[in-house]
Amino acid sequence: MTDDAPEPPSGLRAMLPDLAPWRASRDFRRLWYAGLISNFGSFLTFVALPVQLKDLTGSAAAVGAIGAVELIPLLVFGLYGGALADAWDKRKLIVWTEAGQGLLSVALLLNALLPHPAVWPLYVVAALSSALVSVQRPALDSLWPRIVAHDHLPAAASLNSFRWTVGGVAGPALAGVVVAYAGLGWAYGADLLTFAVSVVLVVRIAASPASHEAAKPSLKAIAEGARYAWGRKELLGTYAVDLAAMFLAMPLALLPFLADELDADWSLGLMYASVPLGALLVSLVSGWTARIHRHGRMVVLSAALWGLAIAAAGIMSNVWLVLLFLTVAGGCDMVSGIFRGIMWNQTIPDELRGRLAGIELLSYSVGPTVGQVRAGGFASWWGVRTSVWSGGLLCAGAVGLLALCLPRLMSYDVRTNEHATRLRKQREAAAPAPMEA
Fold first, then answer.
1. CA-CA distance, 147 to 267, in Å (whole number)?
2. Is pLDDT at 267 greater than 50 in this prediction?
């Protein structure tokens, strides 16, 4: 915050989300609604796709292999997508990739309607969707600092987290019912509709052309972003911690099999919704995050607690306790995500924001993607529940080790960090962004 900025509110009001970005920027509101709607549909497919693979193959390894086919597009297009986000109009990138996701929903819908659906289109769509998301996310993540005032970025991070978790709770919960009683086609059809609505909203936001300092998309430009990230050890720490947590303790590919083992098929939708529900509960009381200055310590602590909560979920034999610990894990993951986002948005210069967003995308996407393969493999060798609880314990241990090896992350303080201070002064010196009603 600037020296003359008002003090954060106290008491109950301090716990509630700060709506300042919502009130100040029309483009923020439009992008927020678009994300809410498309996320809701994406979570329908997020549940329907592994359920369909499970029904067609009966194999935990086959479900976990979704992560394998998503990995290469994620690695390639994540980095190149970041360079595109710095060099091209961010709004156009978001619109075209959103439309592409809608076409993939059409493919899933048509395959589901066949008398004998094929397995291979599910993997093809998963790979193409990974490529489109990898191009879109850097553009989206680098757009927020342009449409939100610098001092409002922590509040925007919390509101965006809340938006994601609403879809994450409602989408899987509804998907479990839709898939069980209406069929996979209805889930894929609803996803298609949400992408159509999202495109209509996004095309109405203002253009966001490249910064005049931005490099053209190339390997040299990607390498420039990587060198900057390597020089920022506190940023490297956020990437490493999240990568370890998601690779070792992401159990989502195993949830259909865990529900079977607990003799609770009815709970599958609730299991998928539990992690986002925990995140939602944290988002609802996220006002306290504005008072925290040592963001790196919060990233480490919450990632370690995520691992312990996942381990507890794997040990429990009562389905309600499993749901409880999955919810706790989701809350911890949200805390980590909020503070990672604040660190990124308040310290990275605009001309590098897209490329660094591409690296960020790899840090929080490669882990879950490869983690699905790890979880599926462990489950095939040692059992589903062993795969879950062992991954959680390994996560907690790995995060603790990283904390010892990353002193810059543990000592990060937004009030004194040189990069945060420099960017704050640059934003204050620049002409203020238009504040729209």
1. 40
2. yes
